[in-house]
Amino acid sequence: MEVKLSLDFKGLLCPLPVVKLAQTIKQVEIGELVEAVATDPGVMADIPAWTRSTGNELVTLEKRDDKTFRFVVKRLK
Amino acid sequence: MTEKKDKLTLVVLSGDLDKVMASFIIATGAAAAGMEVVMFFTFWGLKAIQKDGILTGKGLFGRMLGLMNRGGLNAIGPSRLNMGGLGRWMFKLMMKQKGVTPLPELRRLAIDLGVKLMPCQMSMDVMEIDRSDLIPECTEPVGVATMLEHARESSIQYFI
């Protein structure tokens, strides 16, 4: 499925990755995908926690070789 | 028994940079997760919603308090190792170097996310802090019954 919105979260620290994700996910329709790249290792725990508490779906979350973290979230709420 | 909502009530008694920072991080994180968030600012906590660069107090003691314990997010220092403002300078610099969101921006973010900021009337009376000394975004001053009404229906309550 195609990603509707790509976000750059590089350099952002807690709580900004979840705050920015919560704010920008509203720009896509329900069922659409949002992708982001972050540098804060805290997102490995926090993005799954955020999707569980908000009822959205975490499609992928990976640590990449360049020490960035990429995740894709599907808006369900 | 009141039913609990997906809601967070924070009582912010501390006016220290570190504790106020933690309070706003928890508040913005909760708001981002879709929770309703209410923050009560009491005693030293009022310093976190006081306007920058003003002196509070009416009588002698009130004015002394306002002078020796200045408010506003740029004036407050860490709870430990402040060393007459050196610690505040050092922590701010270290946080800036690491790209941590500055406290004024964090509070702005909380307001934009719909977090309610409520000042405690009794502390304002004791410390001689006027409603006009506080930032316009906070609600009218409230008392303990209002705080408890919110806390009772909140699934999370914190006292900081």
Largest sheet of chain A, described in full?
4 strands, mixed
User: How many helical elements of chain B?
Assistant: 6
Q: Which CATH-level-2 architecture of chain A?
A: 2-Layer Sandwich
CATH architecture of chain B: 3-Layer(aba) Sandwich
Binned strand content of chain B = 15-25%
List the helices and strands and how they pair.
The complex is a heterodimer of chains A (77) and B (160).
Chain A: E1 3-9, H1 16-24, E2 33-38, H2 43-54, E3 57-63, E4 69-74
Chain B: E1 5-12, H1 17-32, E2 36-41, H2 60-68, H3 86-98, H4 103-112, E3 116-119, H5 121-127, H6 144-152, E4 154-159
Parallel strand pairs in B: 1-2, 1-4, 2-3
Question: What can you tell me about this protein's structure?
Answer:
The complex is a heterodimer of chains A (77) and B (160). With 77 residues, chain A is of the alpha+beta class. Chain A has a single domain, classed as Translation Initiation Factor IF3 (2-Layer Sandwich), CATH 3.30.110. Chain A is built from 2 helices and 4 strands, in the order βαβαββ. Chain A has helices at residues 16-24, 43-54; strands at residues 3-9, 33-38, 57-63, 69-74. In chain A, strands 1-2-4-3 form a 4-stranded mixed beta sheet, with helices on one face. Chain A is globular. The two termini of chain A are 18 Å apart. Chain B has 160 residues and is an alpha/beta fold. Chain B has one domain: Hypothetical Protein Ychn, Chain: A. A 4-stranded parallel beta sheet of chain B has the order 3-2-1-4, sandwiched between helices. Chain B is built from 6 helices and 4 strands, in the order E-H-E-H-H-H-E-H-H-E. Chain B has helices at 17-32, 60-68, 86-98, 103-112, 121-127, 144-152, and strands at residues 5-12, 36-41, 116-119, 154-159. In chain B, helix 1 packs parallel to helix 4. The model of chain B has no long low-confidence stretch (mean pLDDT 94). Chains A and B meet through helix 1 and helix 2 of A and helix 1 of B.
